Amino acid sequence: MNSTPPPGAQDRPASSERLAQPRRLLSRLLRPVATLFAVAYFLLDALAYWVVRRLVGRIARLPLFARIGRWVAGLAPYPSLILVIVPLAVLEPAKPAGAWLFATGRPIAGAAVIVGAEVVKITLVERLFHIAKPKLLTIGWFAWGYGRVIAWLAWLKETAAVRAARGMLNAISLFAQRVGRRLSLLVRQSGRG
Question: CB under 8 Å to 138, separation ≥6 — which residues?
């Protein structure tokens, strides 16, 4: 038996290596697109949270949420997971729907959909998740995925785009605070004179 490869076989990569090359190229091409999409998504999320945070704080202090928290704490891991995933699956598509309404000339409806979904998500889903998180982390695959997502978010938060956006949001917040203080001073002064 001849164990020498046919002529030209040494020049061709193995079939698994040939398949891996397009995957690596596709991964390199899609990573910036996915990062840009994630940055835009998290910026929209942060902006919505910045707008509704005071309202969310008031809603979260209602006695109903304390009762819900005690009930959720008594659930087993998988019912807790369902309780978190179902409202999240319903609320997340509201952001693109609101953006579509905004883009099609209905800015008030779009903003109402986005803000409404964000208020419900922050007050309900995030609170449920934080209450149920210890039980959810007892599910092996969930703990593994959660660790991956947290590591990815930590990386994303340190990208230049997110740092720049965070700086811009901080500058906008400081500017809004200064304008608010000046307006309040003007209102007080006009009331005296």
Answer: 77
Cβ atoms < 10 Å from Cβ of 95: 19
C-beta separation of 135 from 77 below 8 A: yes
Q: Are 72 and 80 in contact (CB under 8 A)?
A: yes
- Answer for the pair 19, 138: CB distance below 8 angstroms, yes or no: no
Query: Read out DSSP for 132-178?
Result: HHHHHTTSHHHHHHHHHHHHHHHHHHTSHHHHHHHHHHHHHHHHHHH
Which of helix, strand or coil describes residue 60?
A: helix
Per-residue pLDDT of 18-75, as tens digits, reads 656 776 776 777 777 776 776 677 666 666 666 667 777 777 777 887 788 788 888 8
Contact (CB, 8 A) for 50 and 42: no
